[in-house]
Design brief:
The protein has about 100 residues and is an alpha+beta fold. The protein has a single domain (about 1-95), classed as DNA primase, PRIM domain (Alpha-Beta Complex), CATH 3.90.920.20. The chain has helices at about 10-25, 50-65, and strands at about 1-5, 30-35, 40-45, 75, 95.
């Protein structure tokens, strides 16, 4: 599962996602910086899930993030996006 942030508060998002994952006891993830400093990609390592299960978990995480900051991210995979838009860009640098 992937959360891609693209906004002007990348540092705040970085710290918020780490705090949220600690709160939810999620420990198996990687955070990467994209081509530009304002793009962050959070890869959450999970065992095999159906698209519906992944979408539900990502929706919960997204709603939790929305409580603290305005939404400038997308979650992948998503049932709300066409299949052609459920793609992830390659990360550039691990954080």
């Amino acid at each position: 599962m992937v959360i891609e942030y693209n906004g002007d508060e990348a540092q705040r998002f970085y710290h918020l996602i780490i705090h949220l994952f600690k709160t939810l006891d999620i420990s198996d993830y990687s955070i990467y910086q994209g081509k530009y400093a304002e793009r962050l990609q959070v890869f959450i390592h999970v065992s095999q899930l159906t698209l519906e299960e992944a979408d539900a978990q990502l929706e919960y995480l997204s709603n939790s993030l929305k409580e603290k900051m305005s939404k400038k991210w997308k979650c992948l995979p998503s049932l709300h996006l066409p299949e052609a838009y459920n793609i992830v860009t390659l990360p550039h640098k691990i954080l």
